[in-house]
């Protein structure tokens, strides 16, 4: 099932998401729907708040970047209750986009290497180090769990220049390329 994507301005995208337990209801179905949704919307990562669940879960399939980065090939993973324990290296710039901010992409500065601790879909614990495209995607998705969007990481000047476009997304004055959930007074956040 393809789920609607929460649009910039939706309160769930501003919240710090909550950890989950192994018995979280219908977890495997949710993960399956998230993969279907990510492939349908042509994303390389999707975080639970983007499908209106304020829980610490995101998925990644970096395969579309395989030509630029061989480690991206078949990199398909589920991250539950993740914690980035280290980020290192000199910051570099890469043009990021986000399913919650359609038709927009901007250069974002991030450190290139990370260490992350997380559980997989069977709640086995892992601790791994990544760099390149995979690290970049993980950092972007991890931010979603902290209530941070890549536009929050831009300079004030860039954000000012984007103000109109952001307002249009927030108020639903766009033609969304896929089903989206816009902010309104009735927005209900599920955990
Ligand atoms: Ni995103």
Descriptive report:
It contains 3 helices and 9 strands. With 191 residues, the protein is of the alpha+beta class. The strands form 3 sheets. It has a 5-stranded antiparallel β-sheet with strand order 2-3-4-7-8, sandwiched between helices. Strands 1-9 form a two-stranded parallel sheet. A two-stranded antiparallel sheet has the order 5-6. The longest helix has 15 residues, at 156-170. The radius of gyration is 16 Å and the shape is globular. Nickel (II) ion binds at residues 98-100, 140, 144.
Q: Shape from CA axes?
A: globular
Strand order of the largest sheet: 2-3-4-7-8
Q: H/E element string? A: EHEEEEEEEHHE
> How would you sum up the major sheet?
5 strands, antiparallel
Supply the CATH superfamily name.
Peptide deformylase
List the total number of helices. 3
- Mean pLDDT comes to 96
Distance between the termini: 19 Å
According to DSSP, the number of beta strands is 9
Radius of gyration: 16 Å
Overall domain count: 1
What are the main properties of this structure?
single chain; 191 residues; alpha+beta; Peptide Deformylase; 3 helices; 9 strands
Give a brief outline of the structure.
This protein has 191 residues and is of the alpha+beta class.
Topology diagram in text:
Elements: E1 5-6, H1 27-40, E2 45-47, E3 57-61, E4 76-88, E5 92-98, E6 101-110, E7 113-119, E8 125-131, H2 132-145, H3 156-170, E9 180-181
Parallel strand pairs: 1-9
Antiparallel strand pairs: 2-3, 3-4, 4-7, 5-6, 7-8
The structure holds nickel (II) ion (NI).
């Amino acid at each position: 099932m393809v789920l609607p994507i929460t649009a910039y301005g939706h309160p769930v995208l501003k919240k710090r998401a909550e950890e989950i337990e192994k018995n979280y209801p219908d977890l495997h179905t949710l993960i399956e729907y998230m993969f279907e949704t990510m492939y349908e919307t042509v994303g390389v990562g999707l975080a639970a708040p983007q499908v209106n669940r304020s829980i610490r879960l995101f998925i990644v399939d970096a395969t579309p970047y395989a030509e630029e980065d061989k480690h991206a090939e078949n990199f398909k993973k589920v991250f539950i209750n993740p914690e980035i324990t280290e980020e290192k290296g000199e910051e570099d710039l890469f043009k990021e986009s986000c399913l919650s901010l359609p038709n927009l992409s901007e250069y974002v500065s991030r450190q290139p290497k990370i260490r992350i601790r997380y559980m997989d879909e069977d709640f086995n614990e892992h601790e791994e180090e990544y760099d390149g495209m995979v690290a970049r995607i993980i950092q972007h998705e991890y931010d979603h769990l902290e209530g941070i969007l890549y536009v929050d990481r831009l300079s004030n000047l860039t954000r000012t220049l984007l103000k109109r476009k952001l307002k249009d997304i927030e108020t639903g004055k766009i033609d969304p390329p896929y089903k989206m959930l816009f902010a309104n007074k009735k927005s209900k956040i599920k955990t």
